[in-house]
Amino acid sequence: MILILILYECPLHAIEKVFSHRRETINNWIIDFGSHFENIHHQLVVRPIDHKKVELDELYTTAPGGKHWVTSALSSTYKLWLGGHVSTSRNASLIDNLCSLVSKCCDHKKFLLITTDGLSSYKTGIRKHFYKKIPRNGKTGRSSYFFPKNIVLVQCVKNYVRKGKRYLCYGINHCNIALGTPKAIPFLMKKLNYKGVIHTAFIKRFNATMRSSIHTFTRRSRSAVKNTSLSEKWLYLFGGFYNFCRVHQSLKKTPAQAYGIVSQKLTFEELTSIHRSMKKWTPLKRKDVHLKKNKY
Prior knowledge:
Strand order of the largest sheet: 3-2-1-4-7-8
Helix content: 25-40%
């Protein structure tokens, strides 16, 4: 019950007063259920499928001594949250981790339209994880790479106007085809049954929903999270609730139902109890490079 209240914008200090639970206890529950929802997400959602259009974006939240940057990816077809990451800075490694996750969720043989904002790191990350290797067929030398013709990356550059100390956004100024061929866009638009401007409105709406639901993801909060690992558990806690338990207003069902993972809407209790028997998901470990110590 307490976690459901948290997912509907109830602040932690109010729960402390009403239910007489300490914040450390509530954070331990969030870590436990957030890890469980992350396990469900990587086993049921992260698999190659024809999403047709995927939108990527990032937002920032307040943290003691700085900011936390939260990246997310959303399938425009099914309104399904594909995952995200949290970091203290908006650097290339944060965007690279998100692009790697999107690459695992999408079918590379189908037509795919990827839309982002004007950040240049998206182009580098998408190129790295979607490039295909040309086989050498026994020849010596380095293999060549090419970008698939059925995948297009479009970057929507926004128009900002400075007013005082702030920059106000006035919509999309123009769109750039960063990767892919312009000839594939008519096929993608016909497949999506869409006659309009390419945009990132769905992921922006998801970010606004997450800000309004989770008080720690607001720009100014009295319950800011200190470390990024706890923020990521908050993110997967809301993402699992959004995909499996929350009915989407335009779909009239949950995104997991539209995706075909489940046949009916799950309650929070069913989501936490039914899949407890699943094997724990463990991320791939990177090989550590041991540097030689200088003798002098």
